[in-house]
Amino acid sequence: MDPATLAEARRWGIDQLAETSPSAAIDTDCLLAAATGLEPVQLRAWPEASIEPAAWQRFRTTLRRRRDGEPVAYLLGRRGFMDFELAVTPSVLIPRPETEHLVEAALAQPADRVLELGTGSGCIAIALARAWPSARIDAVDRSSDALAVASRNAEALGAVSVRFLAGDWYAPVAGNRFGLIIANPPYIADDEPEPDRDDARFEPRGALRAGATGLEALEFIIAAAPRHLDPGGRIWLEHGYGQGAAVRGRLAEQGFTAIETRRDLAGHERVSGGILERPA
Ligand SMILES: C[S@@+](CC[C@H](N)C(=O)[O-])C[C@H]1O[C@@H](n2cnc3c(N)ncnc32)[C@H](O)[C@@H]1O
Predict the structure, then answer these.
(1) 27 Cβ contact list (under 8 Å, min separation 6)
(2) Could you list the pLDDT tens digit for every one of the 280 residues in the chain?
(3) What does the function comment of this entry state (predicted)?
(4) How far is the CA of 39 from the centre of ligand 1 (A)?
(5) Is 153 in the pocket of ligand 1 (CB under 6 A)?
(6) Which atom, in ligand 1's list, is nearest to the CA of 95?
(7) 118 close to ligand 1 (CB < 6 Angstrom)
(8) Cα–Cα distance measured from residue 122 to residue 137, given in angstroms and rounded to the nearest whole number
């Protein structure tokens, strides 16, 4: 039987998600709000309001997909990052709160030429462009589907200074140098079990898996950084929580100094960076 009110629909949704989602009530509110065109707060303010049949059908369809594990961000087609909202599709990694630490680390030191490697939704490049409107920012990804999403996001958010380039890591910017290189590359080993986030099952494998050790992309990016940085240029990298020592070691091998690692909200080493006084 179809529910007559928002409160009944909400109760049904929470029951459906109770076993599969750790955030059943929040997910239900987001999906019910999207299906009805209301704000989540309005759902609670008007629990006795009736739900239109078309809205109920929309809600039931997305709720069932959520019950089967699809991330809310893909179902809604959007995700908040820093102080803005991005469109996301299954072609791009869903921006993580951990990556906000990466952006915050970089923002402490303005740069006028920036290279982001592996831009995905464009979240990092767009955040930097919004903070530094006069910076020239190149954002590379090998996925043309991801770049299409990133370009749309940049346009919608007025991040006009970002140039999106298709290709393998540094290939599209060969011969160029930057004041800042920033990346959240894939860093999960091929045979590592699925990350504890269920979302990863639905995200592009090429955005998550790096190779046999998980360090392959980070090592490549660090090894080639000295040929792409200006004197005194910086690098900031997101990495897995067990990879801090390895990343610091690779940075030191390439001549980086002032190497530091920052922790995420869970207390895990998550972001490392350094300065290169004398590039190659
Ligand atoms: C972990 S995701 C990061 C996406 C986004 N920057 C973020 O932080 O949410 C890694 C990105 O790197 C891209 N990528 C993987 N290998 C690449 C390569 N060899 N060259 C360029 N981009 C690559 C993937 O397509 C993916 O978009």
Answers:
(1) 13, 17, 21, 66, 72
(2) 677 899 999 999 999 999 989 999 999 999 999 999 998 888 889 899 999 999 999 999 999 999 999 999 999 999 999 999 999 999 999 999 999 999 999 999 999 999 999 999 999 999 999 999 999 999 999 999 999 999 999 999 999 999 999 999 999 999 999 999 999 999 999 998 876 567 888 999 999 999 999 999 999 999 999 999 999 999 999 999 999 999 999 999 999 999 999 999 999 999 999 999 988 8
(3) Methylates the class 1 translation termination release factors RF1/PrfA and RF2/PrfB on the glutamine residue of the universally conserved GGQ motif.
(4) 33
(5) no
(6) 9
(7) yes
(8) 11
Domains of the chain and CATH, by start: 6-69 (1.10.8), 90-276 (3.40.50.150)
| DSSP H or E run through 140 | strand 136-141
Judge if the beta carbon of residue 214 lies within 6 A of ligand 1: no
- Say yes or no: CB of residue 94 within 6 Å of ligand 1: no
Q: How far apart are CA 59 and CA 32, in angstroms?
A: 6
Q: Cα angle vertex 226, ends 225, 232, to 5°?
A: 105
Best residue among 74, 86, 141, 236 to mutate for probing ligand 1's pocket (most ligand atoms within 8 Å of CB) is 141
Q: Which residues are annotated binding-site positions?
A: 118-122, 141, 169, 184-187
Beta carbon of 273 within 6 Å of any ligand 1 atom: no
Helix (H, G, I), strand (E, B) or coil at 274: strand
Pocket probe for ligand 1: among 79, 93, 140, 219, the residue whose CB has the most ligand atoms within 8 Å is: 93
- The finding on whether 121 has its CB within 6 A of some atom of ligand 1 is yes
**DSSP secondary structure string, 15-79?**
HHHTTT-TTHHHHHHHHHHHHHT--HHHHHH-TTSBPPHHHHHHHHHHHHHHHTT--HHHHHTEE
Q: List the structure tokens of 220.
A: 């490549």
